[in-house]
């Protein structure tokens, strides 16, 4: 019997959508106001879901407290109230789009979750815009 557990979290962060190898004009055409040289911010919402078999001894797929601690250590502490472009090493050479942020978060959490569990990340950049990532298919 496989069951999915989920934990919600949030973090606030600034970023700039910008490619260093493009001209100002191309960045402006592709990223528009999200290419603001002074950055802009979001109140990100995050839902982390883990699917696996229920442990017959504990009745848990994964203790939600353990999942909460992983999210705190891998996402909230390193990303919250940070400038993703300047303060988070993973985005030094990676454009911090919602898609790329979701993949980075997935990779950070994946290394802490049992390999036989499935992992899904839903990252809300706004109330209307969100990205889902489940790993390589």
From TrEMBL:
Keywords: Lyase, Metal-binding, Queuosine biosynthesis, Zinc. It comes from Flavobacterium hercynium. One of its GO terms (biological process) is tRNA queuosine(34) biosynthetic process. It catalyses: 7,8-dihydroneopterin 3'-triphosphate + H2O = 6-carboxy-5,6,7,8-tetrahydropterin + triphosphate + acetaldehyde + 2 H(+). InterPro entries: 6-PTP_synth/QueD, 6-PTP_synth/QueD_sf. This is 6-carboxy-5,6,7,8-tetrahydropterin synthase. GO terms for molecular function: 6-carboxytetrahydropterin synthase activity; metal ion binding. Zn(2+) binds at residues 15, 40, 42. Signal peptide: none annotated. Its EC number is 4.-.-.-. The active site is at residues 34, 81, 125.
């Amino acid at each position: 019997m496989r069951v999915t557990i989920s934990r919600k979290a949030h973090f606030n962060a600034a970023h700039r959508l910008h490619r260093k190898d493009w001209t100002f004009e191309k960045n402006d055409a592709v990223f528009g106001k999200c290419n603001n040289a002074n950055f802009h911010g979001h109140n990100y919402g995050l839902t982390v879901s883990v699917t696996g078999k229920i442990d017959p001894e504990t009745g848990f797929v994964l203790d939600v407290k353990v999942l909460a601690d992983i999210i705190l250590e891998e996402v909230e502490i390193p990303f919250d109230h940070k400038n993703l472009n300047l303060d988070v090493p993973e985005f030094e050479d990676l454009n911090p789009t919602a898609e790329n942020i979701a993949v980075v978060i997935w990779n950070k959490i994946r290394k802490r979750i049992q390999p036989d569990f499935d992992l899904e990340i839903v990252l809300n950049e706004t109330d209307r815009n969100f990205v889902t990532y489940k790993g390589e298919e």
